Amino acid sequence: MNIEVVKSKIHRVTITESDLNYVGSITIDKDLMDAANLIANEKVQIVNLNNGERLETYVITGERGTGEICMNGPAARKVAVGDIIIIISYASMDFEEAKSFEPSLIFPDTASNKLI
Question: What is the domain partition of the chain in residue ranges?
């Protein structure tokens, strides 16, 4: 039996930009992606602490060291610049493997979105 478990989580980052006219996705600073073990085009869930919205999208690589967190496309209507979000990815794995799996969890500085 396979189950879904948290693979990666960026806990409490601030939306720095919102671009409604982009084709879709979330742009994430490459430093944060690396630290959280996320890759380009990976499916992620976005949880908005300011308004309770939850949505799914995919990752686009942002410029390293900028702290950039930009919600793109229609999902841009679900956030506002300054909102604090949690970014989560999941992995499907065997139940026994999941018992010992350790996710990549990071807790950047919310004000700058940089690694502490």
Answer: 2-106
Question: Which residues are tagged catalytic?
Answer: 25, 58
Angle in degrees, CA 58, 59, 62, rounded to 5? 155
Q: So what's the pLDDT on residue 56?
A: 97
- The CATH code that applies to domain 2-106 is 2.40.40.20
Phi, psi of 97 (to 5 degrees): -65, -40
CB atoms closer than 10 angstroms to residue 55: 16
Cα distance between residue 71 and residue 24, in whole Å: 8
Backbone angles phi, psi at 85, to 5 degrees: -125, 165
pTM: 0.96
Amino acid code (one letter) for 33: M
Decide: helix, strand or coil at residue 97.
helix
